[in-house]
Amino acid sequence: MTAAAIPYTPPLKEIRFVLDHLAGMAEVAALPGFEDASPDMVDSILGEAAKIAENVLAPLNRIGDVQGAKLGGDGVARTAEGWGTAWQALVEGGWNGLPFDPARGGMGLPNLLNTAVQEMWHSANMAFALCPMLTQGAVNAVQLYGSDALKDLYLPRMISGEWTGTMNITEPQAGSDLAATRSRAVPNGDHYLVTGQKIFITYGDHDLTENIVHLVLARLPDAPPGVKGISLFVVPKFLVNPDGSLGGRNQVKCVSLEHKLGIHGSPTAVLSFGDEGGATGFLVGEPNRGLEYMFTMMNHARLNVAMQGLSIAERAYQQALAYARDRVQGKPLGWSEGQSKGIVNHPDVRRLLMGMKARIEAMRGILYTAAAAVDVAHHHADEATRGRAALLVDLLTPIAKGWCTETGQQLASDGVQVHGGMGFIEETGAAQHQRDARITTIYEGTTAIQANDLINRKLLRDGGATANGLLDEIAALGGELSGHADEALRVTGAELTAAVHEARQAIAWVLAAAKQDPRLPAAASVTLLELMGVVAGGWQLARAAKVAAERLAEGDADTAFLSAKPLTARFYATHVLPKAAALRATVVNGSASVMALSEEQLFGAA
Amino acid sequence: MPILILADHDNASLKPATAHAVTAATKLGGDVHILVAGRNAAPAAEQAAKLAGVAKVLLADDAAYEHALAEPVAALLVSLASGYSHVLAAATSAGKNVLPRVAALLDVAMISDITAVVAADTFERPIYAGNAVATVQSTDPVKVITVRTTAFEAAPATGSATVESIAAVADPALSGFISAELSKSERPELTSARIVISGGRGMQSGDNFHLLEGIADKLGAAVGASRAAVDAGFVPNDYQVGQTGKIVAPDLYVAVGISGAIQHLAGMKDSKVIVAINKDEEAPIFQVADYGLVADLFKALPELQQAI
Amino acid sequence: MKILCAVKRVVDYNVKIRVKTDQSGVETSNVKFSMNPFDEIAVEEAVRLKEAGTATEIVVVSVGPTQAQETLRTALAMGADRAILVQTDVTTEPLAVAKVLKALVGKEAPGLVILGKQAIDDDCNQTGQMLAALLGWGQGTFASKVAPAGDAVAVTREIDGGLEVVSLKLPAVVTADLRLNEPRYASLPNIMKAKKKPLETVTPDSLGVDVTPRLKTVKVAEPAKRQAGIKVPDVATLVDKLKTEARVI
Ligand SMILES: Cc1cc2nc3c(=O)[nH]c(=O)nc-3n(C[C@H](O)[C@H](O)[C@H](O)COP(=O)(O)OP(=O)(O)OC[C@H]3O[C@@H](n4cnc5c(N)ncnc54)[C@H](O)[C@@H]3O)c2cc1C
Ligand SMILES: Cc1cc2nc3c(=O)[nH]c(=O)nc-3n(C[C@H](O)[C@H](O)[C@H](O)COP(=O)(O)OP(=O)(O)OC[C@H]3O[C@@H](n4cnc5c(N)ncnc54)[C@H](O)[C@@H]3O)c2cc1C
Q1: pLDDT of res. A297
Q2: Percentage of residues of chain A with pLDDT beyond 90
Q3: Inter-chain CB proximity A48 and C191 less than 8 Å
Q4: Out of B237, B243, B262, whose CB is closest to A327?
Q5: What CATH number does domain C2-224 carry, 3.40.1390.10, 3.40.50.980, 3.90.1150.200, 3.40.50.620?
Q6: Distance CA B118, CA B135 (A)
Q7: CATH number at residue B282
């Protein structure tokens, strides 16, 4: 059976708007080292990346889903038809190196720009885009913590994409709880011998490149227990000679590939290390600091997985929108001559589509704002500015990962709903988005783990100072818009102000409750995360609406596009922001009831 | 002043396209002359002389014109152009090759692919792949024009013009013909065919597609299919027209035994003329068809084969 | 051998264009523009000839508004060496473009000029032929293969009935058809390098060319809407309608 290609058109105009007006592309381009990121260069790069997304990656999305990745008799995982050529296109295009050090073959462009490119690639083909995403994460870790020798030997080819990278954390007994990591590494001359089993390793084996560089968490013999005793190692699939040529096969074996609900095109491997004594590994940085290093990769990956929530929603939205225009079912209420008779004009279908559109724009605002803050945190000349940006990134990361992936999933489901029965049928392609989206709330730390991070490390640690600082900024915007002449902006401002108030109350309650019973904030955590996501989304849409209104007032002729912004913001303000009150009520009134039943009652004989 | 049409021919015979250009020329007011530039091209000239509305055929018979190379043919046309108000050709690959060269040598603008004559100096032509129609007016002394053949009827072969031989002009000798590879009998490719005739589940079997193929060969059409027909194994999957198959926009699309699901329509709804043959008068395909025939295809197709 | 390529900035082929309500043209504000797809093929062919060692330098030219610089940058990113923008806000007709190109050919002395066979906005299919005429050069239009050898180039042309091969004396003009090649994606390093490649801006005036349109556009209208369909009673009526009314068979 030939798999059908469902088109994807990169939303370049939306992307450009968010880059310029919400994320501050110009300010990022003004940071030292980013001189090349001029507006016309950004256009050229996005334009070309869009072509690749649309014409190279998107057509392979369905093929990957249908054919999946398969383990060959030789123990090598095979990707779907056409994937090798597509990877080659990325390598030849130098796309993998976009954000990296020019001294090692990268392009030295901002993370913000990379984010926009990644959005398109994830929309086009999420299962495929995981490979460049993880490779970039691995480059980051080696770049930041690896010895010069490691960097010299591995980085150029990882940056070019000739070799890919993986993240080997999870073990059968160690998923959310990394303290349970058991893989071992024993010193052996200039290297270590690594043994153990890792599971769920994305692109843990494949046929796209001649070598794979695994970044592996393992314990040294004398390591302290828990997360403070984990070290990070580079374990290549093929050993690398000092001249960079490939040596012998290392003891890393792909034991099997998982059969999954979604992202079929992405091989998810069980890897066995050191079956015949020990795989050759090289320590990254200092012993016992592996988790800390891995978090560098993970923070990068968490924002990227958050991006997958946006990307998959965008793809599902485009498909739903096209279907809603074509599908006719009865005459829509209030239909008038000249209007399309498509279901798009049934108010409830429109509600679904508006819900998708508004949330997508909200997510894009959050993620690009965070991406710009990453650039500022790394590159700004002023230390205090860097510090503030880093705090914003830290706060936004769990919110973005949790909220954007949960929202992405919901929107993929809404996309199916717009299709009616056809949505449930695989050939339509809407169902694939929903299946693919399902993993995003799980890997790179489940939503619960994000929520724990938000509460424990982002709220309790500084007594809510950073979060309340952000809420102050949002409240100021809400206040400003509440007095605006335009009705849509006024409503947006008022609802935003109210939602900020709810968020403050919820945070205050959590801070207080933490002193009584540590289980209370934990019970409230995911709800609070959702509340923060709802507010952050409203913040971004309000910013967009404000900019759009200003531009219109200045006489910008693009009225159709710009005047949609306040209207979209108002939709969000009246459909999503009111949920803040309910979420606050759940946090404040409902957290105690989460653990109210005893375990016996939960399991008890009914 | 008279109007000159460059004939499209292969020496042995005149291409039908020229007859359409003649019809466009007759709307311009003025005697219509046809230039046949070729080698041993008298047979083509004879056919040109028979086209109704043609006053005179000029035959330039010379080795230089055997393969209708643009450089010598344009030089010849330019030498004649001063006696004409318009120089026309059908918008075939030959006409499109030569006429812009003529226009440039005459230092006049050229008007490609006209679909209507509004006045002797004003014409309609499609732009943006037919998504808009421009009306343009020329003030140049000679109007150089190619004609979209589908927009004008063919002039009938009821005339009897005289054929006058004219001398060749100097060949600029810039180019030479090496070879040609003409695909004669094979059916055209689905996406570029001018006519597509597709069968659906109603065809009942792969064998029955012969009913379509006979008609296709007569019309120079490509054969397509609905997904149901492909899924049922009647025809290979590269026949599939629709959302998940090929997108076609021919001048004529004939859907036979196809219900008209939106996924199928997505692949053919931009066709210029749509014909549907279906025994179910409620079939949605009729909502997009310009001409709908409610009939049993097994009866209608043989009749159609006869009638065309 | 130096190759000159002409590239045009046009409304992207994916854009569903709309006619302006005053019928003065089509809506071009806020729509996506890109390089005319046939021109992309022309540039690709030039780059391949350079990679094969046949060409030594590729100069790309665009006649159009300031924004056509983006189009030129795209060509530079694909592998062209140098760009010339002939800046004008006039809607240029093929004859004017051919004259501009002729003037530049006079300065640059290329051995081969490659253009797209037509621009997908005005759908004229004229410029290459006109340029060849003005230069007194041979032309190989609708090319699906270009093979330079010595002082000639063999061009395989897509013609209505199939393929034809002609040989042209060099220098010559070639216009690219869709099957000539599949244009590459510009690589990121090349996109960045393109910014540093020379892009010179001149005006038609400075080349001594008058680009005032010769044709007057009286109006631009929507094509006729699909007429409500009819049911025909029998095959004979159907065939008759197709022949006389629709004129498609
Ligand atoms: C397709 C796929 C690809 C993956 N790719 C990789 C990869 O490349 N590299 C890699 O190392 N790993 C990878 N993983 C593993 C992934 O990161 C883990 O599955 C994930 O972290 C969850 O761990 P777990 O599966 O053990 O679930 P568990 O930790 O067992 O979680 C089960 C449930 O318990 C909850 N839970 C657990 N602990 C807590 C807590 N402290 N507080 C509140 N709730 C809690 C979770 O939220 C979840 O609902 C991948 C997984 C999949 C399915
Ligand atoms: C995701 C998806 C993608 C799809 N993509 C495509 C696609 O690309 N292309 C496509 O075509 N379909 C596609 N489909 C399938 C589409 O929905 C329809 O199922 C299909 O087009 C039906 O084909 P049909 O009209 O031949 O069959 P039917 O719907 O079964 O119609 C057969 C028709 O033949 C008529 N008929 C039967 N016998 C005769 C007779 N003796 N004389 C005259 N008429 C007769 C019947 O009245 C009926 O109208 C897709 C479906 C899905 C879910």
Answers
A1: 75
A2: 92
A3: yes
A4: B262
A5: 3.40.50.620
A6: 8
A7: 3.40.50.1220
